[in-house]
Amino acid sequence: MEKDFLESRLNINRRRFLSRLSLGIGSAALGSLLIPDLFSGKGEEAEADFIAGIPNFAPKAKRVIYLFQDGAPSQLESFDYKPKLREMMGQELPPSVRGNQILTGMTAKQASFPLVGSFYDFKQYGESRAWISDLFPHIGKIADDICIIRSMNTDAINHDPALTFFQTGAQQGNRPSMGSWVSYGLGSENKNLPAFTVLLSKGKGNGQGVYSKLWSNGFLDSIHQGVQFSSGEDPILYLNDPEGLNRHERRKMLDNLAALNDINYKEFGDPEINTKIQQYEMAYRMQTAVPEIMDVSKESDDIVKMYGPECLIPGTYAANCLLARKLSENGVRFVQLYHQGWDQHNNLPQEMAGQAKDVDQASAALVTDLKQRGLLDETLVIWGGEFGRTNYSQGKLDAANYGRDHHPRCFSVWMAGGGIKPGMVYGESDEFGYNIVKDPVHVHDFHATILNQLGIDHTKLTFKSQGRRYRLTDVAGNVVKGIIT
Amino acid sequence: MKSSHKGFADGALFALNVFILVLLLAGNSLVVPQWLQPAGRLHPLVLHFPIVILMLAMLMEFFRFRPEFVDEKLYQSFTNYLLVLGALFASVTVIMGLLLSREAGYEGSNLQWHKWFGVGVAFVGYGVYLIRNRERYTATIAKTGAIVTIFCLIMAGHFGGNITHGDDFVFGPIMDKDKKQVPINEALVYRDVIAPIFEAKCQSCHNADKTKGGLKLTDEESILKGGKKGKLFVVGNPQISLLLQRIHLPEAEKKHMPPIGKPQLTDEEKLLLYFWVKNNADFKKKVIDLPATDSLRIIASSFLKPAESTEETYDFSAASESDIKKLNNNYRVVYPLAAESPALAVNIYNKSTFNVKALEELSPISKQVVSLDLNKMPVKDADLKAVAKLENLRRLVLNFSDVTGKGLKELGGLKNLRSLSLAGVKLTPADIKQLSAIKSLTELAVWDTGLKPADFHSLQAGNKQLKVLTGFKDDGKPVKLTNPELKNKAVIFSESYPLQLTNPIKGVDIRYTTDNSAPDSARSLLYKRGTVLTQSTVIKARAYKQGWIGSDTVQFNVYKCRYTPDSVLFITRPDDKYKGDGAKTIIDKELGGTSFGNGKWLASQKDLEMMMWFNKPIEMHFLELNTMRNIGSQIFLAAAIEVWGGPDKDHLKLLSTLKTATPHKDDPFGLVPLTCKLKAAQTVSCLKIVAKPLKTVPDWHPAKGKPGWVFMDEVFIN
């Protein structure tokens, strides 16, 4: 190393310096002609626009809990009330409504597209008088705390790309997850826990898998990867010390390892080495922090009644909601839940009832629980799937049994807290629940809005990888100002 | 120079200067004939000559008396030529300029300054020329004259530039143009949306100095007045408004505005002007007063700063970086609220390491902390003294801390506190009165404090903006309990089994039976810790709790297996699909569960024979074989089981035979232990078990005639 520095110094003498300088100035001039911003100082600024770990402006929300309903719940049996579909039960979907929408292979060859109304009735709730289906009575009770967006739309029509799009802002699956972006953008609030955690649960309905690429850090530093908490004795794999190793020994081992790593760092200067040391240290602190969080035995009866007794059974959606509250309360920036089993291609009325029963009470309880702790203001809760479902039946239409295929053009999600207007319904679909007629919200807009609530300008949260700066919102996205307080 | 030329030049110079004087004195009363206008318009061309020539001449004049130049003939006469030429050009230029200024559209202070400096150049230049060869003309006078002329030249040039190109033309690009973006909720339609368009694209020709077409676009009055061609717009009717007509004319059209070569309006700007006129060209309206669907508002909101980011501005200065860094540790996070914000947020974690020092150490940043999160920390009342010093605190979380009502009075001094979370802190109605001192409070979270909404009425009466969050209230409807769970890891034991039944809900009674009867809340055994089983048992259990609905009944089977064979071998092999982990599957103390395809079951459609050895002879009373029945999947109980035993494999005797009843259509799915009892206890070292499947499936089954499957996962020897 030292020798190289010396050689490099010897290589420069006055003559060489001057001849190089002239070349340098010449190319700088040329460069400034080719890249207009080169000397305007703007380039530098753009780089400095974003400092990792600090929001661009004061955030409304400090944390996010994303209740992902994996498989795509039907908007027509949940939050988008379409009485017209009941009136027109069994009639053909007018081609003018369908337009040029491409269908999936599952229904594209279907001879007829009979419209089907919701098997379940709807009621109006709260001061906002929002229509919510009878499958979600508990969410109905918090209607005045949530903002239902009925005009979500996405680009993808199949589960994997759509899910990946929602989670990473791109369909291909090599980008960092939203949680990783947030971890990168805001840093950790609690150094004893990962900034991005993932919790999985599964309903009895027809399901689609989830896989770790959805919470991958992509090209971001590996410290931003989502950490999966599983039910059972080892909530985080490989976190516990092996049997027979006491904490004191572990400490000694880590210290020595850190010393070795430090020598390596001094020699090669690779920042990943420091990351590694930090991660070991965090894991060490997690060994005490995690058991405390996973322990639900101190939760009061009121809490159990709120979330439903299932919340004490590890691995259920209700338990994950309770855990999400505890993690969030302890400064975890992004808690990502996935509840699988929402892919109702057939047998929808029955399966959806089961799925709704899994999530209704606990989702509502989470919002109420955060609110009563004074934390809802700074925690953004999101509930929704990767796309919607068709207004026509997949397969044979029966009065009490039908299915719905994938529908990317229009579906519903809801958000609560974190500076989102409570008690409002945003956007509108046509009377067939097929197309958006007012205030569409694209997935990119959705991402831009979430980042905005976290104090991040989505156009400034960038990371340069392989010669290109990437954003969660790629080159699109507008903050949905209508739903922001 | 020939004297005739010189004389002509002198004469012309004199005449021109007199003409200038006349023009200046005649002032406004002078009318420029049309044929002379082109001469005036040549002013911007000609003016470059005097600048260069006079500049050079004055430079030479300045150094004229230097000893090395005094006797230089060429130097002296060349300076003279230059001077007379420069003075001539200057006079001509001034005259042209004065003619041009008479045309419409030139006025304002830039013009006045330009005019007088220009005239100054002409006169001073002429003066220097006149006196430069006099006796009393000294070096000082020469230098003064030169400096004054050059100064006038520069100033005239500067103000002239301002007239043609607008103010700050030269330094505009590098001056800080980043005007503060206006948040949408403060923006006025005219001031922040329309006026910037006029400023950028119109005012270079329609300003106070230069009112082309008699139009000035700098203020409300002049805009309403319009120009020579009349009013700019008909309010509410953009189609017939002159302003919109001019900007929408094809570019080639002479009347198109802005003229060719000037920066053009963008489509968005044209739209904004259109909508502004359509919306009655209001000068006072706020952007947010327009309906949310208004096109103008939508376009405007795309470039105005969003309202939500109207950040609170803090009047304190930022804390030192090194202080912040020092205060950050594994259990205390101090971070800025946002980039360039002096405000800090502090979160403290880990109960076991918390002490009051964690708060006291914040004194170097006591001004800057606006948010403090002490969720679940064992904060004592006395510790709140340290919190009270954080004078700018906006938000304080004390959920489930050790604070009591008494401590709250410490918080009275927090004059900026807006949000206070006290969930889980035990309070009395009297405690809450102490909070009335905090007038700034807007949100108070008091779930699980033991207080009722009514307890806050007086507090809310004194502070109308206060929102009290009392949270969930049990509606008294009973909720169904979750099922009891078996906590033991194993269900197979050799001697005794310490039964561990649990339920995650606190205060639950678990009732159970061991005789296959349904448990109830009165007669069944109440589970107590320390219950020990010594035999294979079927436990049926249910959870009960006052005010809750009892759980479902759940069943747990536990199996006793006194002796485990030391080795085991197949004599006939099981089916390849269901061979488990080999013969040891039958003695691995792991049950196969309810799914037959999970690789934990051994199965065959032929006789399945196994041999087992014990290192030490055992005294056997009976043997149980755990099997599966799943008639739908063609899995039946073994038709017969034979148990052979003896001291070694060559001396086995048939010890027991079990025959099962003929299967019935309605036999339920089940995991069935088949017990082979020995007539009398037998000492054996070697055992052979033969499981015979059902020979032919009965006629009522779809697979009638074929042999049944026999499935087994474990053997229990007692």
Automatic annotation (TrEMBL), chain A:
PANTHER family: BLL7424 PROTEIN, DUF1501 DOMAIN-CONTAINING PROTEIN
Protein name from the UniProt record: DUF1501 domain-containing protein
Lineage: superkingdom: Bacteria
Entry-linked InterPro entries: Alkaline_phosphatase_core_sf, DUF1501, TAT_signal
Signal peptide extent: none
PROSITE patterns: TAT (PS51318)
From TrEMBL, chain B:
Keyword Heme in record: yes
Transmembrane annotation, as ranges: 12-36, 42-60, 81-101, 113-132, 144-161
Cytochrome c domain span: 189-281
SUPFAM superfamilies: Cytochrome c, RNI-like
Entry keyword annotation includes Secreted: no
Keyword line: Heme, Iron, Membrane, Metal-binding, Transmembrane, Transmembrane helix
Highest taxon, organism lineage: Bacteria
A Pfam family that the UniProt record links to this protein: PSCyt1
Protein name: Chitobiase/beta-hexosaminidase C-terminal domain-containing protein
Native organism: Mucilaginibacter pankratovii
Lineage, opening ranks: Bacteria, Pseudomonadati, Bacteroidota, Sphingobacteriia, Sphingobacteriales
